[in-house]
Amino acid sequence: MSPLRLGIVGAGFVAHFHTRAIQQMRGFTIDGVTALQRAPALSKVITDNGLGEGTVYPSISEMAGHVDAVAIFAPNYVRVEMVEELVDAVKKGAPLKGVILEKPLARNLREARRVVELIESAGLRSAYYENQIFMKPLQAQRAQLAPQQRSMGPLSLVRSAEEHSGPHEAWFWDPTRQGGGVLSDMGCHSIAAAWYALTPLGKPVDFLQPVSVMADCALLKWGQPKWRAKLLAERGVDYAKTPAEDFATGIVTFRNPETGQLVKGQFTNSWMFEKQGLRLLMDGMGPGYAFEVNTLQSTLNIFIGDAAAEAAADAELALEKSTASRGLLAVQYNEADLYGYTDENIDAAAAFAAEKDGMLPVRYGLEIAKLVMAAYMAAEKKKTIDLTDPAVQQELETYVPLIQQGRGAEVLCA
Ligand SMILES: NC(=O)c1ccc[n+]([C@@H]2O[C@H](COP(=O)([O-])OP(=O)(O)OC[C@H]3O[C@@H](n4cnc5c(N)ncnc54)[C@H](O)[C@@H]3O)[C@@H](O)[C@H]2O)c1
């Protein structure tokens, strides 16, 4: 079967990650790129590596008629308008098979619902990209521990964390454009990974029913005067006026609808992680068995002494969000594969070719958006959010966290 022609919207950090992932699979060629900035550079990577035509288009609508699927890898604050433009092109005749949306689906539930309704109104197949669910270590532990799960029962506790020293672009730090701080940016990953790891084998990804959420958000590092000044100077974002959380943690409780058993997913996320670089840490407890994933443990370590440190100008060659360029350093030489980008692209390409949704359609992304909103609400109200209460469900539909409104100073103290 010939590969699907993919058109990419956005040519920044994650678009480059996906390009490295698509290099490792069949199923997509990258035939189009459109972005406000950096599209020619991404196009050159695509053509240099023989990944497709990489034609640069001036807009989504102009690209839509020349590709089979479109992947939106652009900032959160333009998500709704981009989906509107894409759906408009489809309704005018662009013969698209599917659309891919990076996490988070949107900044809040109202926006997320609009995105889902637009995509469904156009009859488009979808894949919400939550890469961590596709991580080979997470998938391998499920396969390896399948006999234990069958004989002993499923996991009852999963702890899932993603932490690094802070994002690479200014818009991520601005809570009004990004949607919040680290909970909006990375809580969506850790909540999804925990929900998935807890899900019994053979059950759909939304089988376990979320019943309650408790959470705490704090500004532990980037609100301190020295770090606040650095943020203002380097990113143009003033955390004295519009702060966002750089630490978030909480627990989502899920109910197994067949057995009634309650299980827990604990998430922790920070932009104040003072170790080598990005760390994904997940562990799960079942009755008599367990697993642990730690992406800072690599089969490759390198050592760079002080005398040679000047030679290591680009620390991020070793690890995403690296903070050190000397000493003993862990190297992940295939991060695109390790973090699940390769396998999520394989899944989407195969699904769209078969005229199906990916393993995680946009409706799943909407459920994750709801859990993230419930976590903000729990932290804001300092109480556990009961998701079985219809009034709470109603409130979540239009809820916009104070932090996202730019009023974080009312709930975060530095
Ligand atoms: N799965 C992950 O782990 C992961 C990692 C990073 C980012 N992301 C997600 O991917 C998305 C993009 O993040 P990023 O880090 O690549 O951002 P980025 O800032 O590095 O790149 C954004 C790209 O979008 C383009 N863009 C911005 N506004 C545009 C507009 N109106 N029209 C056309 N192009 C526009 C920019 O010019 C740039 O090329 C975000 O939703 C983010 O949450 C996911």
Sketch the topology as an H/E string, one letter per element.
Answer: EHEHEHEHEHEHHEHHHEHEEEEEEHHHEH
**What is the straight-line distance between the termini?**
56 Å
Number of strands: 15
Instruction: Classify the fold: give the CATH topology of the largest domain.
Output: Dihydrodipicolinate Reductase, domain 2
CATH architecture of the largest domain: 2-Layer Sandwich
Strand order of the largest sheet: 12-11-7-10-9-8-15
Radius of gyration, rounded? 21 Å
Lay out the secondary structure.
Elements: E1 4-9, H1 13-22, E2 28-34, H2 39-48, E3 55-56, H3 60-64, E4 69-72, H4 79-91, E5 98-102, H5 109-121, E6 125-129, H6 136-144, H7 146-152, E7 157-163, H8 170-173, H9 175-178, H10 182-198, E8 209-218, H11 225-235, E9 247-255, E10 262-270, E11 279-286, E12 289-294, E13 300-304, E14 327-331, H12 335-338, H13 341-353, H14 362-381, E15 385-386, H15 390-398
Parallel strand pairs: 1-2, 1-4, 2-3, 4-5, 5-6, 7-10
Antiparallel strand pairs: 7-11, 8-9, 8-15, 9-10, 11-12, 13-14
The chain binds nicotinamide-adenine-dinucleotide (NAD).
The site of nicotinamide-adenine-dinucleotide has 19 residues, from α1.
